[in-house]
Amino acid sequence: MGSPLVLLDVDGVLNPFERPHRGYRRHRCSPNGVAFRLWLNAAHGRMLLDLAEAAGAELAWASYWCDNANEWIAPRVGLPRLPFVPIPQFPGVEEGRTLGAWKARHVASWTEGRPFVWFEDEPDATECVAAEPGIGDHLLVSIDPLAGLTEEHIRTAADWLAARP
């Protein structure tokens, strides 16, 4: 078992789906040639770096943005280049699998039994990741995709990481 991981989703977590509260700025980007408008908060980078440092944890992307998050998201929120879970695009309906189950499968495989905190907005991700074989000790911090990541979410993760043996 290695050091704990702090996994970050982008859309709905760092990029809320509705116009967010104070501290966010609008950004334009075009990963893979597709134009997007993002709401990002530069304070998130420092909060996440402080969380990881205090816990001796490694930050990583767990988002469909994959490595694109390093180009389009990280510099705008003050994060360095991070490793990422290689999550392929959801293929659509797959024998009852949901979006949360699809992501959970890839997250579980990539974490290789390491403990982790996952900031995620998919409503079924908690039970889906817990059902994956070989999953390590984890906390899924459920984010309201309309509001995005808050200081309360960071405190919840910090408390869980601090309580680990």
UniProtKB/TrEMBL annotation:
Top-level lineage group: Bacteria
Protein name: HAD domain-containing protein
